[in-house]
UniProtKB/TrEMBL annotation:
Organism: Streptomyces solicathayae
This protein's encoding gene: treZ
E.C. code: 3.2.1.141
Protein name: Malto-oligosyltrehalose trehalohydrolase
Cross-referenced PANTHER family: 1,4-ALPHA-GLUCAN-BRANCHING ENZYME (PTHR43651), MALTO-OLIGOSYLTREHALOSE TREHALOHYDROLASE (PTHR43651:SF11)
Keyword Kinase: no
Start and end residues of each stretch annotated as Disordered: 458-479
Catalytic activity entry: hydrolysis of (1->4)-alpha-D-glucosidic linkage in 4-alpha-D-[(1->4)-alpha-D-glucanosyl]n trehalose to yield trehalose and (1->4)-alpha-D-glucan
Lineage: Bacteria, Bacillati, Actinomycetota, Actinomycetes, Kitasatosporales
Length: 585
């Protein structure tokens, strides 16, 4: 087996520790800074590298870390797994994504335990499961965004074999699997990359410190490292797509950006494998060039999250106006209508929150709607609240049903956060399991200071390091059978069924979306082909002039179709999907 490592920091040499043996690596004459050696090894054998006689460190490209990020690497034979199911070949158009955190989806918090529940999602009508990060991090429980080994699966989740079983099970049910990956930073503990080479640069500074080196000397190899990791998830684990965390935080001044390079590599991999893996960006830039094809001057990513839609929907539902919600809260129904058809609320307009103009308009004629994801809740928007409270903690079932309706019938690709479909009563809080006591205390105090500035008492903010914080965040599946959860679950199932059965709901034409609203009366109606979707967020019934002939396809509360006067009389905190009277249901 060939063992190789990029270690330009080594001056006197690199040694491989493999079992009880130590042997020197030779410089690779064809690649500057690379060292290599051949040695017999089998799946599961432990190994590491020593630079200049120093401590033995895990391989930067560790495929497995059985003892965590500070332990030795283990050899993984990716050819040994007997795959049972083919790729489901699910495209983004027509997709319904479901964001899932392995550590809290079940009490066990493992990939195998989560796989046992995937039948529920297939039955619900979900098409893709979007897994929060799985890369190895210190401790057992955490969100995963402090990962330090971009090629390895977190061992407490079950390691590489468990991820393969999960993906195989999902594919057998017709579900695609999307994996959240983090390229903009690595965690503060267990990160051994700086010992090997210039993986980070002081040229740029980020909220996490020195930036990942995408444009300074040595960045060719760092980019290749991250590209190789991304392709490994697609190749070795048959992942169907990647969600790229906070791409706006990638400091990259090169003419050919890392994101373009990554998109090109993923497209080439898909062409070679006769499949279409995709990349979904999380971006705060409000820039449609993120998903514009490379041939048209864009970065060529396939889709991006649309936080503007979330913020407009959240303010319309809750009335919250603090922080970045302030821009949307001035006229939330207008903001909601704009983000439904125009995608970005800030499309070159002034953002009071930022104190400047922000964003760029989406070309609604040339840009398909499935370039954007719409959602009412995500891990960020729940977990970054002081108490990790979901919408279900403060909204009526009727308003939760309205949120579901706007997400699942809107033009963007809908995404749900786990448990949302039944209005889970459990919070989803910020939890960590840092093994470094100083880091653990810094995180604890930082969290308290952050929310003290917003008026929260210290004792009210959950301790991220307390195991009870994670335990409170585990879903309670028994809720699904009880009211009002069962009724809401049935509504989600109904809406997803409509999305799959009515092509108008997956029409990519953004320019065809038409919305009307009444800011004071708090109702909104929009058109998707021959369908009309109407929500009433007010605490009293609304009369909504639709005109024409319509019939009810789905309604949260019993509601008659509009009479001869064309007026829809919709109960308080309710919603309805109607079909043109001449259309088939």
């Amino acid at each position: 087996m060939l063992f190789e490592v990029w270690a330009p920091n080594a001056r006197d040499g690199v040694e491989l520790e493999l079992g009880d043996a130590r042997l020197p690596l030779a410089p690779d004459p064809a690649r500057d800074g690379w060292w290599q050696a051949e040695a017999p090894a089998a799946d599961g054998d432990r190994y590491g590298f020593s630079l200049d006689g120093g401590p033995v460190l895990p391989d930067p490209r560790s495929r497995r870390l059985p003892d965590g990020p500070d332990g030795l690497s283990a050899v993984v034979d990716h050819t040994a797994y007997p795959w049972r199911h083919p790729f489901p070949r699910r495209a983004l158009r027509g997709a319904v994504l479901y964001e899932l955190h392995i550590g809290t989806y079940t009490p066990e918090g493992t990939l195998d335990a989560a796989a046992e529940q995937l039948g529920e999602l297939a039955e619900l009508g979900v098409t893709h499961v979007e897994l929060m990060p799985l890369c190895s991090f210190p401790g057992v429980h955490g969100w995963g965004y402090d990962g330090v080994a971009p090629w390895a699966v977190h061992e407490p989740y079950g390691g590489p074999e468990a991820l393969k079983r999960f993906v195989d099970t999902a594919h057998g049910l017709g579900l695609g699997v999307v994996l959240d990956v983090v390229h903009n930073h690595l965690g503060p503990s267990g990160n051994h990359l700086p010992s090997y080479g210039p993986y980070f640069t002081e040229t740029h500074h980020t909220p996490w410190g020195a930036a990942v080196n995408l444009d300074a000397p040595g960045s060719d190899e760092v980019r290749a490292y991250l590209l190789g990791s991304a392709l490994a998830w697609l190749r070795d684990y048959r992942i169907d797509g990647l969600r790229l965390d906070a791409v706006h935080a990638l400091a990259d001044t090169r003419a050919l950006t890392f994101l373009e390079e990554l998109a090109a590599a993923v497209d080439a991999h898909g062409a070679a494998e006769n499949r279409e893996p995709f990349l979904i960006a999380e971006s705060d830039l409000g820039d449609p060039r993120t998903t514009t094809p490379r041939a048209a001057g864009g970065l060529g990513l396939h889709a991006q999250w649309n936080d503007d839609f979330h913020h407009a929907l959240h303010t319309a539902l809750t009335g919250e106006s603090q922080g970045y919600y302030a821009d949307f809260a001035r006229a939330p129904m207008a903001a909601l209508a704009k983000t439904l058809g125009h995608v970005f609320f800030h499309d070159g307009s002034y953002s009071a929150f930022r104190g400047r103009h922000h964003g760029r308009p989406v070309d609604r004629v040339r840009t398909p709607a499935h370039r954007f994801l719409g959602y009412a809740q995500t891990h960020d928007q729940i977990g970054n609240r002081a108490l990790g409270d979901r919408l279900s903690a403060s909204l009526s079932p009727g308003l939760l049903a309205c949120a579901a309706t706007l997400v699942l019938t809107g033009p963007s690709v809908p995404m749900l956060f786990m448990g949302e479909e039944w209005g889970a009563g459990t919070p989803w809080q910020y939890f960590t399991d840092h093994t470094d006591p100083e880091l653990a205390e810094a995180v604890r105090q930082g969290r308290r200071r952050e929310f003290a500035a917003h008026g929260w008492a210290e004792e009210e903010v959950p301790d991220p390091q307390d195991p009870a914080t994670r335990d409170r965040s585990v879903l309670d599946r028994a809720e699904r059978e009880r009211e009002p959860h069962a009724r809401l679950l049935a509504w989600y199932r109904k809406l997803i069924g409509l999305r799959h059965s009515h092509p108008d709901l997956t029409d990519p034409d953004l320019a065809a979306v038409r919305a009307a609203f009444d800011e004071k009366a708090r109702w909104l109606a929009f058109r998707r082909g021959d369908l009309r979707v109407v929500v009433n967020l007010a605490g009293q019934p609304a009369e909504i002039p639709l005109g024409g002939r319509h019939r009810v396809l789905a309604a949260w509360e019993p509601v008659p179709a509009p009479g001869p006067d064309g007026v829809l009389r919709l109960p308080a905190e309710s919603c309805v999907v109607l079909a043109n009277g001449l259309a088939r249901g």
